[in-house]
Amino acid sequence: MKKTKQLFAGLILMALGLGTAQAEYTLNLMKGATKVSHDIYDLHMLILWICVFIGIGVFGTMFYSIYHHRKSRGHKAAQFHENTTVEIIWTIIPTLILIGMAIPATKAMMELDDVQESEMSIKVTGHQWKWEYEYLDNGIHFFSSLDEASNKARQVGSGIDPFTVENYLLEVDKPLVIPTKKKIRFVFTAKDVIHSWWVPDLGWKKDANPGFINESWTSVDVPGTYRGQCTELCGKDHGFMPIVVIAMNEPEYNAWVEKQKSAVAAEAGSASKQWAKEELIAKGKSVYETNCSSCHMADGAGLAGTFPAIKASKVVTGDINAQVKLMLDGKGMMPAFGKMLSPVDFAAVVTFTRNGLGNAVGDSIQPSAVQALQSATPGAGKNE
Amino acid sequence: MSAVVAEHDDHHDHGPAKGLLRWVITTNHKDIGTLYLLFALAMFFVGGSMAMVIRAELFEPGMQFVNPQFFNSMTTMHALVMVFGAVMPAFVGLANWMIPMMIGSPDMALPRMNNMSFWLLVAGVLLLASTLFMEGGAPASGWTLYPPLVLQTGKALPFAIFSVHLLGISSILGGINIIATIFNMRAPGMTLMKMPMFVWTWLITAFLLIAIMPVFAGAVTMLLTDKFFHTSFFDAAGGGDPVLYQHIFWFFGHPEVYVMILPTFGVASTIIPVFARKPLFGYSSMVYATAAIAFLSFIVWAHHMFTVGMPIAGELYFMYATMLIAIPTGVKIFNWTATMWKGSMTFETPMLFSIAFVVLFTMGGFTGLMMAVAPADFQYHDTYFIVAHFHYTLVPASVFILMAAGYFWLPKWTGHMYDERIGQLHFWLSVVSVNILFFPQHFLGLAGMPRRIPDYAVQFADWNMISSIGGFIFGASQLLFLYIVINTIKGGTGEKVTGEVWEDAAKHSLEWTLPSPPPYHSFTTPPTVIPTEHM
Ligand code: HEM
Ligand SMILES: [Cu+2]
Ligand SMILES: [Cu+2]
Prior knowledge:
By secondary structure, chain A is α+β, with helices and mostly antiparallel strands. Chain A has helices at 2-21, 35-68, 84-113, 148-153, 250-272, 277-291, 293-296, 314-317, 320-329, 343-355, 367-376; strands at residues 120-127, 130-135, 141-144, 176-179, 184-190, 195-199, 204-208, 214-218, 224-230, 243-248.
């Protein structure tokens, strides 16, 4: 029985160590970067300590008894089997402890729930398997998906050691940028299935439900990069849709906003220019890798029974306009890419699929032609 | 009337049917109990091997063995097989074997239905397992089967749903049978408040089962019509709401987790007094606490949904209600401790598993209490922290108690003694490895690792590797249990066991007044003396 004692002593020590050792090892909840996250951390520590003390009391009594009240030490069994006083005491004390916990918990809950008086709003839409961000105040709008280095390394049998990839699985191509010290309201929804948006340093997660809107808010004190992940199972690549939030001081944030706006203007210009087929194919390859390969596979072979192959597909080797239309509108689990991809990326990936992945149709399409088709099909690419 | 009686008498002379057919057509509570227990043991290994696939893939970062879709199928099937194929059937098996013997009756009240409910279970689980080989793979949406994701399942969807229907019918029939038996077949003098705790907890569990299985069946049927018949219960585009499914599911799901723990409480309350050589402390408060937990289990479901976007009033209500469960749960734990207090304890394998149960279940209760606090759950939810929570409540709690029950009653069932040395070895290997397996998962969750992911960021690597090593040791150790079961059935240590098996056990419960192994029809004449030491 000595071993049991040692084991459980070890476990309790491990639990006690939680509070002090957290700096060196990732053992405990992070304190986070907001007032709310600090409050939640304090609440967490409060309940943890309550549990540790109750645990010491209960397990201590039990192990005392296991050691002393054993037959091998000649202990004779007492025959009592109830005691109303003790039973009342051990019902009332826990009740009081619970009330003591409920009060700070209620306060924290009210605080979390209060989205009033926010200074800006960001709409977050979950997609299989990327996040879409829309700044409701200034119109900035982009998608954010797993970065290329992680994506290559995470393929089955890629042979790439994850330890060599910086921020493996926690890096995105385009992070969400927010200003510090501002109350930011988030609204959440999803396009296909339920996702959940979690950045531990902000102190909460919120589900993104298709067809419904959820709200939450944050106000980050310290500039920095905060990483998180989707936390609601959303299919195959649920583990591969991270979140990166960069909090910047006001002036830097404003500079970032300006840069985004001029990038949009440049993008519009490139859509009207004539592109060479080779240029489109080269660009299309990387568009394919970030947007299509998770379902249709990197080699275009698809996944039998769920995701059709691109290689030798009837659609891809058939009429090019029909392919564009299918991709604009989406079909079943295939999202409508009309709004997700810029006309340039769209034309590039169409051209790539028809001239790569084992296909050799030979034709290509210009971004301007895609735009024309898009406006000719009412509803195409409209996300709502 | 007299004709019926005559036929009944006639039956008593029949022993079991000859040959393999005995097991197919049997209506005997012991045969059916054996079938349930062996089936559950087999499924424990099937579900366990899926867990080994999961832990192998999570052994280190990067994708080594399976693709993400198959990984999701594994987590889904592991949970469904363990819940519906292993833990629940194992407890039904125990109920079949023990309830008639504990209340002094010859058999269950509805023996033919008993047979049917077992074979429906087999059909349901086989149907579920067959989805692994279907186009598009087995369901991969988690055991909670949330829409819209679950509607993306390939060909397997209707089969999985039909399998849930079969499992549901099987459980309901089992529940009805247990209630009918307990209400009608008790020996004279066995009043409700004299029933052994195991019988009490199963009575309450059976009511839970009857209440919730139709709800689950309803929820999955709505999935079916959404997918194939153009309804939109869970589709916003048609005026439905995907979150509605979650409310229905957890209205079933929360009591369901108590279906797996209440009989556990019953077994612990049976074993601990025998080895402490003392009556159970606070018998009536144990009964009331069980009833209170069962009642509360119906009004706390949305604590699984704190982040789904509920109004503040809902969040607060479900937080307070969930915290309340800690009170009756605490009463139970204090009562077990008080039962050991000033006893004269010995530590045979069943007692070791029971003590480990009390301690480790309490750990699960602690994390449950932490997650009950809604704002804190905004951090814990859907991380490895909750994976640690429910595995503590299910593995070193429900599963350990099933092991304890096995060691406790195998000598009664077979008439042979198991090998105590191997039993103790099995216990120590299990209790150490289960903590290596699940304790680090608390750290992983707090540090930010989401659940249900096939690959993870490198800062989670160390604890995952430790957890996997614990998993492999735990998995391998269970082969010892298999060995012990087979060995004991075949003759065990060769030592002839008495009817009582354990010192003074007959003072605690009626089954120990029968010889070991007991006669085919347990009590053909009702016992006259009701043991009271268990209360
Ligand atoms: C003291 C009693 C308990 C409390 C207060 C409690 C509380 C909770 C809470 C709040 C959650 C949701 C966590 C989340 O998703 O964020 C949860 C999950 C869970 N609990 Fe408990 N729990 C208790 C006991 C049990 C018991 C006895 C069992 C089973 C035998 C159990 C099994 C589960 C399971 C299976 C889940 C996860 C379900 C899923 O999402 O897949 N819990 N518990
Ligand atoms: Cu996800
Ligand atoms: Cu629950």
